[in-house]
Amino acid sequence: MTVCYLEVDDEITGAISKLRVIRDGEAVIVVPMGSRIATSRINFKLLTREGNERQLNLVAVSDDSSVRALAISAGLPAYDSIAAAEQALATFRDQDRRLAERLGKQPSERPEEGSAPERRLDAPGRTQVLDIPQATPGAARTGQAAGAPRRASEPASDGTAESQPVAPEGRAGSRRRRVGTAPILAAGSLLLLVAGVGYGAYLFLPTATITLQPLATDLTLAPFTVVADPDVAVSDVAAGVVPAQRLEVPLSVSAAFAATGIEARETRATGTVRFRSENTLNEVAVLEGTVVVTADGIDFETTTRAIVPRADFATSTPGSIDVPVRATRLGPRGNVPADAITKLPAGLRGQLVSVRNPDPTDGGGRVEESVVTQADFDAALIVLEEKLELALGEALALPGTTPRGLTLYPATAQTGFAEPVPTATETVGAVQTSFTVALESVATVLAVNEALVDELATSRVRGMLSADQHIVGDQVATTHSAISVIGETVPYEVTTTASVFSDPDSAALTTAVRGKSIPEARQILAPYGMVEISIWPEFVDRLPDQTARISLVVFTPSPRP
User: Fold this and answer.
1) What's the distance, CA 205 to chain centroid?
2) Pairing state of beta strands 490-502 and 291-294?
């Protein structure tokens, strides 16, 4: 067996040339996808004719069912694999052997009774057998019988020998020469040839190609509910649940607010007093906190310790030093004019020290300041919380918030704990006319990959199919709509439709239609779908009785547009 591989661009002439170099009597011709030869039935007829002329057992192999159907319609057996082709050739060899055995048992021709071959000597060492009827009864052996033909070896009356037998014409009593065996043998050979051709036709003809496109029906499921739940990790077809995702959305808002609290406070007056000493013997120490008083009783105290120098006796110059003082009481009463502070403790006076303020004292009074109260802070938080809700809505509307492939459900959004910055402890009581507070939080919202809803619906449809049912085009039409959000779950109402068909039992159908007429075969196959039947040769009106000569090709229904 020779396997002959064709190229895609091989012409029919090239394919025939490849067949002509095959010498082992069996060939498998492999036709690739897209081959030019597979574009015409005539090409396969030419290959079949070439195989017949060269007495080749020729079969074709192709992965394309339509190419096999075209080859079979042209009388060329076709298979989907080389292994199947080898098995078919083995079958053909067995059929050829049985045909040869049958032809070898035909009886040989025999001569008729009453006739016998006669031998004569034409030349030394050579004999010839002649079919000569026997002489008429009563004829003398020594002479020629009346009306009997003379043998070629008998001498004539004149003593010469005849080279040819002589038979008298028109003798009524003479017997007719019997017919020779050569015509009978020729006729027998012709009969055997006709029988062999008929048997070969029985083995290889006819062939039938049946194309069947199964009927498709719509399968529609009753509407059902699928729930998207963030606490589910994987889809559950039986429970009708798919996972949802919680997305985190960071939020931050801030604003400035006015401080409405008032804090009143009084201040002390301050100034400077000059201590003067007439003591020429000793310096005089003035302790911190020494109280000096105005004539109307307003007290001041020194804020530092000081040493009053002694007076210069020679020049009669008193010693003096300036010391800071402040009023002992808050308020504007401590604001006194210059030289108003004149009284000092008796111990200093006894050391010849006096005091006065060279300049007025000032700074004593009542001051009112703005301060942040707790009420101010609480009111600011209420405003910021409203801003936080608005910021959440704006953030959910941004394209970057929702990952690709997910559907966001704002109704499920929830803001987490909001942390003010700075805190109330850091803000309340601060002496300032305004304050700024920020509110920060992380919100959560549910998002769903709705393709999982469609996949669950498709899986539910597939689970309802039997083993021999298939979905046309592997396409399932699914629609879903979200119902009102319940807590942190999103329920969907889902409807699903698919076009399905049943895969027929090719072997059983082939057996059912073998040997049937075309109308009968159509009637048998009609319940299974659209049927086309092609028989070769075309004048045959009945399918072959052998299932091996019937090719049933099942085409998958096309999806609806």
Assistant:
1) 46
2) unpaired
482 phi, psi to nearest 5 deg = -75, 130
Burial class (CB in 10 A: 0-12, 13-18, 19+), 207: buried
Give 494's strand partners. 224, 480
- 181 pLDDT band, cuts 50/70/90, is low
Tens digits of per-residue pLDDT, 399-438? 889 999 999 999 899 888 899 999 999 999 999 999 999 9
Distance of CA 385 to CAs 259, 358, 379, Å?
A: 19, 61, 10
Q: Is the dihedral of CA 551, 552, 556, 557 positive or negative?
A: positive
| pLDDT confidence band for 318 (50 / 70 / 90) | very high
Interhelix angle 41-53/12-20, nearest 10 degrees:
20
Q: How many CB atoms lie within 10 A of CB 513?
A: 24
Radius of gyration of the chain (CA): 66
Cβ distance 121 to 152 under 8 Å? no
Tallying the residues shown for the chain, one arrives at 561
The rounded distance, in Å, linking the Cα atoms of 195 and 202 is: 10
Bond preceding residue 206 cis, omega within 30 of 0: yes
Closest CA to 49 of 5, 16, 73, 21: 16
Whole-angstrom distance, CA of residue 111 vs CA of residue 91: 40
Per the DSSP assignment, residues forming a β-bridge with 556 are none
HEC string of 153-209 equals: CCECCCCCECCCCECCCCCCCCCCCCCCHHHHHHHHHHHHHHHHHHHHHHHHCCEEE
Could you tell me which residue, 230 or 148, shows the higher pLDDT?
230
Maximum separation of any 2 CA atoms in the chain, in Å: 226
State the Cα–Cα distance between residues 409 and 461, nearest whole angstrom: 28
State how far the alpha carbon of 30 is from the alpha carbons of 2, 43, 207, in Å. 11, 14, 20
Contact 148, 175 (CB under 8 A): no
Residue 511: strand, helix, or coil: helix
What is the C-alpha separation between 143 and 161, in angstroms, rounded? Answer: 14
CA angle 515–521–525, rounded 5-degree value: 135
- With CA atoms as reference, report the closest residue to 486 among 227, 121, 105: 227
Residue whose C-alpha is closest to residue 228's, from 495, 493, 490, 494 = 490
Alpha carbon distances (Å) from 206 to 48, 74, 210, 455: 14, 10, 13, 49
What are phi and psi for residue 39, nearest 5 degrees?
-90, -10
